[in-house]
Amino acid sequence: MEVYAHVNGARRDAHRHEDGLFKCYPKGTNLVDTARCFSDLRDAAVFLVQHPAWGIRMQPGSAIIYEGIQIARR
User: Which of 10, 27, 30, 69 is deepest in the core (most CB within 10 A)?
Assistant: First the structure.
């Protein structure tokens, strides 16, 4: 499975935080206390589908992306 977005012509992919978890955040915040954490990318993808206003941290740049997120089953 892939979770990614194209931002300003560059592809960004969901990545694990330094603690090994994928982190989703509500729009407008990057506070770890508000993040929902997932050990499996599939679980994070399901959460994003169910909560379309939330974003996920992506690389490169370690940015939280909220819009244009794509989920591909591979």
Answer: 69
Adjacent-strand bridge partners of 19: none
Q: Please give the full DSSP string across 7-71, using - where no structure is assigned.
A: ETTEEEEE---TTS-EEEE-TT---GGG-EEESSHHHHHHHHHH-TT-EEEEETTTEEE-SS-EE
Q: Does residue 73 register a pLDDT over 90? A: no
N-term to C-term CA, the chain: 5
Round to whole Å and give the CA distance between 37 and 57.
11
| Number of separate domains in the chain | 1
The range of the structural domain enclosing residue 35 comes to 2-72
